[in-house]
UniProtKB/TrEMBL annotation:
GO terms for molecular function: glycosyltransferase activity. SUPFAM superfamilies: UDP-Glycosyltransferase/glycogen phosphorylase (SSF53756). Residues 179-328 form the Glycosyl transferase family domain. It comes from Leptolinea tardivitalis. This is Glycosyl transferase family 1 domain-containing protein.
């Protein structure tokens, strides 16, 4: 820990960028700052505050000037990294969106290579990806999984699983910008399961979905999709407890919050074996299945193999629900995450 000029121990952190709204980074920031505050560590408004002992960069930031000033002040700069922007290179997207993704990648790389004193990857997959593409760095690195409040996200609740249908759940902050392919897969999965299972199967989609996509997929699915809209964070656990499985649609995800929230609620997770999912969904906490083609090129996935995995979970709930909770307890508690970041920031 670093002393101030007055001899008082620095226990404050300045966080960049300022994030709010939906999505993993905002959720992570809120959980981390609450956990730090419980440990007597304040989030500060400026690196000029004498309590500031470290700067945390969540991904990247355009405010390179503040990071350069932090280096001159000998403040520790910690960069938290997930993956890189990549889907825009595989699809036809608007030119401004493409350029924005490339600029963000450049910022991530520049900070990682030149400014960060410590690097935290969200998973072993993220660490390997960065080191494969961009090489090793002078800064030491570690892996810290995201965490959730295991009391807030738990199997305990008044919700009951529907007995007349199987409910699949898909939770995403935003669906669009190339990520609607996951919705395509989820709808096709639901359609195939409705041909195979002993009860109707319905897909509930939580998140911000453009109206034109809702209209299109409602028509394509034959009315098998329920649109939950943007669900407040304090209602996600209730949603998880009322479903039979979560389908994680992300390809090459670093550490999806929706997955660990579901596990904590005892909700088994189904996913393709891409990104960090094979290291997160272990034992009988869910199933990861082969994609069946080159997912880095966004080739069409194996829906039949996915449906086989889904059927196994749907027909054997007792086999999967308790192990899902156990997996969250062993690896994804919020206290574990905050302790890791506290050590990386200040020790």
């Amino acid at each position: 820990m670093q002393p101030t000029l007055s001899g008082v121990t620095n226990r404050g952190v300045f966080i960049l960028p300022k994030i709010d709204g939906l999505g993993g980074p905002a959720s992570f920031r809120g959980r981390l700052t609450r956990g730090l505050k419980e440990r007597g560590i304040e989030e500060l408004d400026s690196i000029e505050d004498e309590r500031c002992g470290a700067v945390l960069v969540i991904g990247g930031t355009k405010d390179i000037g503040t990071l350069l000033k932090a280096r001159r002040k000998n403040l520790r700069i910690v960069q938290r990294l997930n993956g890189m922007n990549w889907i825009h290179r595989k699809l036809r997207v608007a030119p401004d969106y493409y350029v924005r993704c490339e600029i963000n990648n450049l910022l991530l790389r520049y900070i990682r290579k030149n400014l960060a004193d410590r690097i935290v990857y969200q998973s072993q997959f993220a660490s390997k990806w960065w080191q494969t593409v961009c090489g090793t760095t002078r800064a030491p690195s570690s892996v810290a999984y995201n965490g959730v409040d295991l009391n807030e996200f738990s199997p305990a609740g008044s919700e009951e699983l529907p007995s007349d249908i199987y409910r699949l759940l898909m939770v995403e902050a935003h669906i669009g910008g190339g990520y609607e392919r996951g919705l395509d897969t989820a709808v096709k999965l639901t359609q195939l399961l409705n041909q195979q299972m002993d009860k109707p199967v319905r897909l509930t989609v939580a998140g911000s979905v453009p109206e034109h996509l809702k209209t299109y997929w409602s028509r394509q699915s034959g009315g098998q999709v329920d649109w939950a809209g943007v669900v407040p964070g304090n209602q996600i656990a209730s949603l998880d407890r009322s479903a039979h499985l979560l389908f994680s649609a992300d390809l090459n995800a670093a550490c999806p919050n929706a997955v660990i929230e579901a596990l904590a609620c005892g909700l088994p997770v189904l996913a393709y074996a891409t990104g960090s999912l094979p290291e997160i969904i272990t034992g009988n906490s869910g199933l990861v299945v082969p994609y069946g083609s080159n997912y880095w090129n966004l080739e069409n996935p194996d829906i039949a193999g996915l449906a086989k995995g889904a059927a196994e979970i749907l027909l054997n709930q007792d086999k999967f629900r308790q192990p899902a909770r156990q997996r969250a307890e062993e690896a994804f508690g919020i206290s574990r995450m905050v302790d890791q970041y506290t050590s990386i920031l200040f020790d």
